[in-house]
Amino acid sequence: MADRLQFMDLTGPEIDSLDRENSVFVLTISPLEVHGPHLPLGTDVWVAEEVRERALAKASERDPELDFVVFPSFCLGSDTIPGSVETDSRAVNLVLHGIAGFLARRGFRYLLVVDNHGGPRHQIATAKAVRRLYREHGFHIIAPFLSFYRRMVELDPALLARLGAGPGACGDAQDCHAGLNETSLMLRAYPEKVRPLWKELGRISINTGRWPGILLGSAGKLLRLLGREELGRDLSYVGQMLCWVTEKHPSNYIGEPGAASPEAGDRMLDAFSDEAVDRLEA
Questions:
Q1: Which of 114, 142, 104 shows the shortest CA–CA distance to 48?
Q2: Which CATH number fits domain 4-166+272-281: 3.40.630.30, 3.40.50.10310, 2.60.40.10, 3.30.70.790?
C-alpha cells in the first residue's frame, strides 16, 4: 500500500531518506478568484484538491510501490477576473521552479502539479517551468491540467462522449468560468459551499463578435492555414477570452450555472483525475 506523507511534517533527514525512484511529490496550486455570485473564492483550490485526492487514490491502486509526499496547497494564480487575488505569472513560474529545483537537487524525479485555473499566463508559466526543469535537471513536473484544459476548450470528442456533454457545458470557452462545469464540480465536491442562488442563474455567453475575437480569430485561422494548427487554435481562444474580460463591465461568470448537477461534476472529476494518473504513468 502506498504511503501518504505530508511534506511539512517531515524533517530534513527524513526527506533525504525517501526512495528517489518511487517518491512522487504533489503540489496543488490555484488562485483565490471570484466565481460568480454563487461560488466562493476558493473554488479552484478546492476543486484541484478533490482531483488530487482522486488521482492519488487511483495511482495507489495501479502502483502500490509509489509513495506520495503532499505539499500544502498554494493559493496562487494569474489572469484572474476583477475582484480576485491576482498574482504576477512570474510568481507562479518561480514557485514551481523553486520547489522542483529543491527536489531535483536532492535526486528526486517527480512533482505532480494539480490546478484548476485556465488563465493563459498562468498556464504558460506552468508550461515554462515544466520545460525548464526537464532541460536543466531531467526533472519531471507533471501538470495534467495543461493537456486536460486543452481537451476541454477544443471540444475533444472522446472527452465530450465520456462526459455526456456538448459545447457550452464542458468547461469550454462558453462555459469557462463558474458556469455549468465549475458549479457541477463544486456541487459534487463541496455542496455545502455552493450558495442556493446557483439554481436561478441563467446562461451568460461571451460576445465573440467584439474586436479581440474578430482580430485574433482571423489571425488564428491564418496560422492554421499555414500549418500552425495548435498556435492558431490558441490564438483564437485567447481572442474569445479577451472579448469577455475587456468588456466595460464583464460578467463574473460565463455559462449556465442553473443547469449544473453533481452527476456532471462527478464525471468531470473522474475524467480529470484519470488524466492526472495517465500523465503520471507516461
A1: 114
A2: 3.40.50.10310
